[in-house]
Amino acid sequence: MSAPQDSPPQRRSGLRDPQRAVRGLGAGTLALEALVLLLAIQPIRVAGGDLGGAAIGAVVALAVAAAVLAGLMRRSWAWHAGTALQGLLLLSGLLHWSLFALGVIFALVWAYVWHVRRVILG
Question: What is the DSSP string of 41-80?
């Protein structure tokens, strides 16, 4: 016997709106990244880091880009732009080693966000 035609489609995740949940996870991650990047400037400078103007400019630009991307998570390309942002943060490690450390941490978090997205959305 087949299932009735009027039954609603089954949701794999059990979430009411999986797309929205995944977008929220991506946006929250990028917003947190922007906040951490901005808050990291002063501790890096105090802890003996020779954080020059170029490095501070790069951190601020990356934080702004992360905040903008957090607001654009409805666009499918924003996920790929978020991945590129992680790569740029890793490259900013050339300016200061602590930026590379932050890049590794957030790249791992972003990889986990992609994993969750793949599991929930299929």
Answer: HHHHHHTT----HHHHHHHHHHHHHHHHHHHTTTSTHHHH
DSSP state of 2: P
96, 44 contact by CB (below 8 A): yes
State the 10-residue block means of pLDDT for the chain, 122 residues long: 56 78 96 96 79 85 97 95 96 89 96 94 84
For 18, the enclosing helix (H) or strand (E) is helix 18-46
What does pTM read for this prediction?
0.84
Burial class from Cβ neighbours inside 10 Å (0-12, 13-18, 19+) for residue 103 reads buried
Instruction: Locate 112 and state its tokens.
Output: 């986990």
